[in-house]
Fold each of these.
Amino acid sequence: ELLIVKPKQERTGLPPLENAEQGNVVTRFPPEPNGYPHIGHAKASIIDEEYAKMYGGKLILRFDDTNPEKERLEYYAAIKVGLDWLDVKYDLIKNTSDDMEVIYKKGKELIDSSYAYVCTCDKETISKNRREMISCKCRSGDLDQNNIRWNKMFDKFKPGEAIVRFRGDMSSENTVMRDPTLFRIIDEPHPIHKDKYRVWPNYDFAVAIEDSIDGITHAFRTKEYELRTELYYTLLDKLNMRKPKMLEFSRLEFEGMPVSKRVLKPLVEEGKVSGFDDPRLPTLEGLRRRGIVPEAIRKFVLSLGFTKSDTMPPFETLESFNRKIIDPISVRLFIVFDPVKLTITNNNLTEIEISNHPQNEMGKRQVMIDGNFYISGDDANLLKIGDEVRLLELYNIRITKIGSEVEGEVIGTGYKSGISKIQWISRKNPVNIEVLTSNVLFINDQFNENSLEVKQAITEQYYLELNVGAQIQFVRFGYCRKDSANQAIYTHK
Ligand code: ATP
Ligand code: MG
Ligand code: MG
């Protein structure tokens, strides 16, 4: 019998790429190492990787590191860690900053062919002229003047005194084309090259040169860059360089959970969240601590597809992909909130065995008992003298006394339908933990002061045997991830 293998693109749900040849597709993920990777980077890198895989091509991880003011080694590392965690595999890793000599050469080429000039106007004048579509006198400077000024940018000029501008079209409807900046002076040590360079290309110039020389066939970026695409192609055109196909997709972000550094950084600095790995944040580290697994992120991203419309999917969509993946591997454990003591007067068991998962082979745990338990305050409040209830996995009891503590007696072990079932923790070896629950960070653009709930709880001894990172389903509470010996982070229902 023939085994019919569906083409990859049907399996990923991504539409085919225009002009893509099997074996010849090269994509790139070009993060700027100026912050921690987040769900938006997950989307971009997963799409980049899936397309490379779909066509048997290559993915390049390229650090877009030409603004030393904002970049730090710590972020290069964090991005690599994030991609490893996501299982995004790249074929090549490089830094834009390693190509500075080529980038200077191309800049000089534009100056020499009069497609670029050095402008010494001040910032305000430049913006005003751009708005009013007015050319400045630098634009008509001759080649000698431009060459002298270009050279002075490497030593004499101070930051802000001169920039290289592309000779675009000052009256273009597209404001990006109104003589955009190609190079500026930044006197900050670069994380890798230290003080070797001070003239740095801006994003538009660097990305066009790099995509072209890296052999990128299909480049993707978010929709807000759409107006810059005209500049991208024009620059490559003037330089007679090969043009990749640039495509845009929508930004991914969750409602009330912004990804922007401009918003997140102050929260970290003001201590409103514990760090960039706070489980409330959409950073990969935050999502990981919250118990979201990388396979779920990939499925979620691919389910959204290559869309241009900016929708904010509900976080619950990601959660439902996650639930399907973690349910079969989550240890079932009892948990009790607002503990009330329950004493069984005729208990004669000392130890019982409970399965770690109702269906799957995840082993069993021994639980020591002596008739002294904790039950949840909520359950205790509903009890009356004479009630018959089942202590889950243990036995049926009848309530004999109610007060600040509860007493009962065993009335049988057989499963009895129609009675309520409650969970319990043996008082022989209870484990106190804190459970952190994350809520949305912002409500109507206001920081949600209740974005993190901390609940005290008591769980089973077995919790201590689990590794940090273990997924747990606390019975009748929800899925959680063990974050430390005394802290669990709520994942979802
Ligand atoms: P920032 O505002 O953080 O500087 P950026 O758009 O400059 O964001 P980089 O950090 O340089 O992004 O991101 C690398 C790649 O990830 C880019 O191709 C960018 O388009 C993509 N990306 C960034 N944020 C998102 C997002 N929220 N959704 C989808 N893709 C994103
Ligand atoms: Mg970024
Ligand atoms: Mg950026």
Note: Residues 32 surround magnesium ion (ligand 3) (CB under 6 Å).
Amino acid sequence: MNICVIGTGYVGLVSGVCFSEKGNNVTCVDLDVEKIKKLKNGTATIYEEGLEDLLKKNISEGRLKFTSELSECFNQSDVIFIAVGTPPKENGEADLQYIKGVAVSIGQLISSYKIIVTKSTVPVGTGSLIKQIIAEESSFNNFDVVSNPEFLREGSAIFDTMNMERAIIGTESSKAAEVLRDLHLPFTNNIVITNRETAEMIKYASNAFLATKISFINEIANLCELVGADVTKVAEGMGYDKRIGHSFLQAGIGYGGSCFPKDTSALVNIAEKAGYNFRIVKDVEKVNTDQRYKIIEKLQAAFDNDLSGKNVAVLGLAFKPNTDDMRDAPAVNIIPELIKMGCQVKAYDPVANENAKMVIPHLHTVPTVLEAIDGADALLILTDWQEFKKLDFHSIGKVMNKNVVIDGRNLYSPDDMKKAGFYYSSIGRKTIE
Ligand code: UDX
């Protein structure tokens, strides 16, 4: 199949590369000329395991191309994927300016049957809007607009796409549904064909549900601390119930990233516009914001509420491991607050140091764990990187000024930390003093 993917962000680039890996001819389009130059040379523009290898392989085998001109690939493509950004506006609403711009360009170029597919997460009803814009730009009306939301996770984007758990195809056109089913069958047998509005809603409902699971377990964690229970065991016990499952029940400092915060607030906004007050998701958002600051309360508790002049080592800046993505990372709220309270912060992340400096003012980063903890009064763990799961606390104790660890991701057992002689405070478990 000949495919064109507009937008080479996370979703567009990964989808384009994976479609080509399955034997399709794919051209990825982006207005950013510099980005296209890099991609043409086989250089991945995002940090994602396995991406660069597949990129190079498919370019050299002639199935994957890049251009900054949509007109170069539009005519010969059967399916056009729209994967441009939909950043949140101040009021939480998704900003559709890039989607609308692409729809105008498509309207100007279209002269033969095309299947136009939205992969970007868009408010319910956007498919109809795209259809309307194309119709306004062109008298050629032989095209279908399909919603095909993407569920990949950063850090395992290639794996998630190559082994997708389901493909959602939202269209009233049986012709378009057939083509997209054929395109997705090499990836999964779980194919849901429905109307566009339902497909658009599936994406928001899925992300909001996962965010709800996280905020739910974080509230349970807060309660566990008050009644002497251990949230990790509670989650384990709950998870054996197949109806609940173990995933997304890891208590911590809350979710971040480019999807959950944006999609929950967009869902609240979609509901408001439809005249519905979506109470649960509003509370999920509030719980998530408060949870970020819990780690600061814990640090304050370790120092009798006086943090001025304290040297604090922060391990982890990215919103989750295996990515350099700082979008809506808890560190973005936590570190400025620590600095405001008078702490001297030295931070280390295996890959996100540079990106973090762009979004956290006055951030001092160091290239190793050791340099971060040298002389520190406290160590804060914000991201559950593998590297932070196997720290040698006997050696660490020798270089820190005070043996205080505040663990926002529950990476260690409180009993082990007690044996190592540390003050250890984590989420939803007993504090070792
Ligand atoms: C998410 C969805 O998982 C994916 O399907 C969708 O397409 C995009 O949004 P992503 O943002 O890449 O993917 O990350 P994910 O692994 O889902 O984690 C999101 C956030 O939740 C991270 O900040 C993570 O630390 C946090 N999280 C996750 C928890 O705090 N506890 C958990 O149990 C799971």
Note: The radius of gyration is 24 Å.
